[in-house]
Amino acid sequence: MTTLLWGVLPYVTFALLVAGLVWRHRYDRFGWTTRSSQVYESKLLNIASPAFHYGILFVLVGHLVGLFVPESWTNSLGVSEHSYHLLSLYGGTAAGVLTVAGIVLLIYRRRTNAPVFRATTANDKLMYVVLVAAIIMGMVAKLAHTSGDGYDYRESIAPWARSLFTLQPDLDRMAGVPVLYEVHMVIGMVLIALVPYTRLVHMFSAPVQYLFRPYLVYRGRDPEQLGPRPERRGWEKAGS
């Protein structure tokens, strides 16, 4: 089971992610969008969407730092393990709460607005369930191990995560990892595999080309700027 969960499942997840992105881009390029429903309702969306996006961004950054920035690096910057633990505990919990609050508002908006609800696919409903489960389980795992400096995942989960990139998973690092963290990780991998098949795929659509496109030139409607209008033809005069 250890080999299956921590030596096979991560690569299956990555394969599903890449294959899904390639398939979606090739066969559903015009569906590669958030399918915005702002035209149906914008008041609640203007609150829920920023809360979700900022929250999930902080959650993502926290995971990247925790998993891929070695403890020796933060120590060299003068950040003690206790300070890092407090920042991870309070900052991660706040980001998680903000994200969940945004998701709850988005779900409420979809359930109470018929046109918005009709635009929600079965995959998106599954995505909401898995996303909420992953975030809540992460907060539960963190809050359940708050004594002292908490569970030091940077000595176990983080080295294992980095070892995946060498194609030699360090399975021994996962020995003794608390069950709550293991459940959080499995749900997280399921979420990653689902990304290409839901509206979350738009995270890979950063409009980088906007930085290099030509300037847009707008023409004014002032008659003096446009110059004299040409004389109308016969059929145009008849319709005026």
Overall average pLDDT: 83
What sequence of helices (H) and strands (E) makes up the elements? HHHHHHHHHH
| Strand count | 0
User: Describe the biggest sheet?
Assistant: none
Helix content: 55-70%
User: Strand portion, in percent?
Assistant: under 5%
Rounded Rg: 25 Å
Measure the end-to-end span.
79 Å
Poorly predicted runs are: none
Query: What is the overall silhouette?
Result: globular
Secondary structural class: mainly alpha
* Total of DSSP H or I helical runs spanning 4+ residues: 10
Descriptive account of the structure:
The structure is a single chain. With 240 residues, the protein is mainly alpha-helical. The protein is 62% helix and 0% strand. It has ten helices and no strands. The chain is globular.
Topology record:
Elements (H helix, E strand, L loop, with lengths): L1 H26 L17 H24 L2 H6 L4 H32 L1 H5 L3 H22 L13 H7 L15 H16 L28 H4 L7 H6 L1
Helix pairs in contact: 1-8, 2-4, 4-6, 6-8
Question: What features would you highlight for this structure?
Answer:
240 residues, mainly alpha, 0% strand, globular, Heme-iron_electron_transfer, transport, membrane
Summarize the structure.
62% of the residues lie in helices and 0% in strands. Helix 2 packs antiparallel against helix 4 and helix 4 packs antiparallel against helix 6.
